[in-house]
Design a protein that fits this description.
The protein is mainly alpha-helical and about 200 residues long. The chain has six helices and six strands, in the order αααβααβαββββ. It is about 40% helix and about 10% strand.
């Protein structure tokens, strides 16, 4: 299969996934979707399915961690090569869940990437409603602007390169500031004043 068909195939699979979800809704099957989620106390007692438990004993965890780290580091390298800001550098021994990026409009950026067959994921959009008033400006900023790119073990090098190309083409990213003393990436507050820095962006 030529890789240039990836956006069309990805969009088709995403549409199929939504169709299956609609059928499950009609059948009133209770499930918790991944993406565009927050913390719901009423769902805190839910457990994984028996099938998931069955699969856990058959996974190559060493290989999974190695491949996820390779994918993350390749995407980071491509971002830097293309002049794109990197929000977080992978720490030693960490097995990454996603590759986080800072975007100006989280939902709009996700939709743009979905249209190109990239299943960017919106996570942690909301916290515990009872504690919302206690969240700081930095937390609120990250909820609105951090979008996750897939780097799981089944993703290939050409797909990682394609993701970097599409993120660059859409010009989606905010540019995080870097603290001169510590070298740490910092993020702005929603009001424009710095939580621990400032950033500029395009969309």
């Amino acid at each position: 299969m030529e890789f240039r068909f990836a956006p069309r195939i990805g969009a088709l699979l995403a549409s199929l996934k939504r169709g299956v979800g609609a059928v499950l809704n009609i059948c009133r099957v209770t499930r918790i979707p991944v993406g565009d989620i927050g913390f719901n106390p009423t769902q805190s007692s839910l457990g994984m399915s028996a099938w998931s438990g069955h699969m856990l004993s058959r996974l190559d965890y060493v290989g999974i961690r190695r491949r996820r780290r390779e994918n993350y580091q390749l995407l980071e390298k491509l971002f830097r090569r293309n002049g794109l800001p990197v929000f977080l550098t992978l720490g030693a021994g960490v097995c990454p869940l996603f590759f986080p990026i800072l975007v100006r409009d989280k939902h709009r950026a996700a939709r743009a990437l979905w249209s190109r067959g990239i299943m960017a994921t919106e996570l942690w959009n909301e916290g515990d409603p009872a504690l919302a008033s206690l969240e700081g400006a930095g937390t609120k900023f990250l909820r609105r602007h951090v979008l996750e790119l897939p780097i799981h073990q089944d993703i290939t090098d050409p797909q990682i390169r394609y993701m970097a190309e599409q993120v660059s083409r859409f010009n989606l990213l905010l540019e995080p500031a870097v603290d001169g003393a510590s070298g740490r990436v910092t993020a702005p507050s929603p009001s424009g004043g710095a939580v621990s820095g400032a950033c500029v962006g395009s969309i």
